[in-house]
Amino acid sequence: MRSADDDGASQPEIDPDVLEELEFWTGPDPPEDPAEQLVPEPGGGSVVLVGTPIGNLGDLSPRAVATLRSSDVIYCEDTRHSRKLLSHAGISGVPLRSLHQHNEEDRIAEILHTVESGGKVAVVSDAGMPSISDPGRRVVAAAVEAGVVVTVVPGPSALLAALVTSGLPTDRFCFEGFLPRSARDRRVRLEALAQEPRTMVLYEAPGRVPRTLADLAVACGESRQVAVARELTKLHEETWRGSLAEAVRWAGSHPLRGEVVIVLAGADPAEATTVSDAVLTSALAERLGQGEPTRGVVDDIAAAFEVPRRRVYSLALATRRPSSDRSLPASESASALESESE
User: Fold this and answer.
1) Among 285, 275, 229, which Cα is nearest to 256's?
2) Which residue from 36, 138, 211, 337 puts its CA 20 to 30 A from 11's CA?
C-alpha cells in the first residue's frame, strides 16, 4: 500500500503494527529533542548498562546521554575517563563510583542497596558494552538473582564493528575475548579454536598481537584467513586482511597502537576433524618436558584429540629422540622409547 507525499510522489505507508510500536515508545507526537525519546523505564530502582563510544565520541547516543544524566549514580571502570566523557556530553552533578575487576565483588552490596531504595544505577565501561571483557557481569548476575530490574542502553561494540568489516562470514560467530596467558591454558584454548567452524573474534593488547598471531598460525595453519582491526572508529582506524602467515610478517614489521580486535575464519569441515601435527607435538613437548612417562602421555593425548595412538607415538618418538640417535632406524628408536616408557 502506498500514499502520495506533497510532491505527488508515491510513498509506502507505514505498517499499522510498526506505527503502533512507534507510538508505544515515543507517543503519538514524538518530542523534537531525540534525547527525550527514551524507552519508558520501570517504576522503582534499576540497573542500566550503558554502551559508550569505543573511540569516536560522536557515537554516544542521545538516549545514553539522557540515561546518564538522569541516573542517581554512575559506576564506571575509570572515574577520570568517564568524567571526560560526561563533560563532553554536558552532564554534571551525577556521582561517579569506580567499578573494575578488583572491586566489582565489593561494590555489589552498595549497588543493590541503592536500587532497592528506588535509585537508578548506570554502569559503564571505558569503551563499549559493560560486562563484555569488562566489569559488569557479576553486578548483573547479582541483580538478577535479587530480582532487581536490569535494562540496557545499547551502544558501540568493538567485536561487532570488527566482525562486520572483516569480510569473513558473519552468519555464525563466537566471541573468545582475551586468550589465557598461562602456557597450558593457552594451548588448550588454541587447540579448541583450531577446530572451531564458526568465525572467531578475539581481543588482544597491541604488544601481544605478534605472538598471538604466531600461536594461531601454529594451531590453525598458516593459510587460515584473518582480519586484524585497530583504532576502530578513530582517526587512524585500520583493518588488515590476509592469511595468518602474512599476518605474522605484517605484525612483526608494523608497530600497533590502541585496542586490537582479531577476527579469525572458522575451520573448514576437513580441518575441524583433523588435528595438525604441530598441535599434537606441542602437547607432547609440554608434558614430556615435565618428565611424564611417554606411554601415559601418548595414551592421554591420543584419547583427548581422538587420533590414532600410532600417530601420536610417532610424534613422541621424534620429540624425545636425542639428536645423536636421529640416524637410527625408526624401529630401533621405537623399541628404545617403548622400553623407556615401561
Assistant:
1) 229
2) 36
The predicted model scores a pTM of 0.70
CA geometry: angle 85, 90, 96, nearest 5 deg: 55
Closest CA to 11 of 21, 3, 20, 19: 3
> Of 236, 271, 306, which one is at a domain's C-terminal end?
271
Distance CA 36, CA 196 (A): 44
**What are 255-295's pLDDT values in tens digits?**
888 889 999 999 987 655 567 788 888 888 888 888 889 98
- In degrees rounded to 5, what are phi and psi of residue 61? -75, 155
Buried b (16+ CB within 10 A) or exposed e, 29-49: eeeeeeeebbeeeeeebbbbb
Same domain assignment for residues 144 and 77: yes
- To which residue does cell 564458526 refer? 198
Q: Are residues 76 and 151 located together in one domain of the fold?
A: yes
Tally of domains within the chain = 3
155 in Cβ contact with 128 (< 8 Å):
yes
Amino acid at 240: W
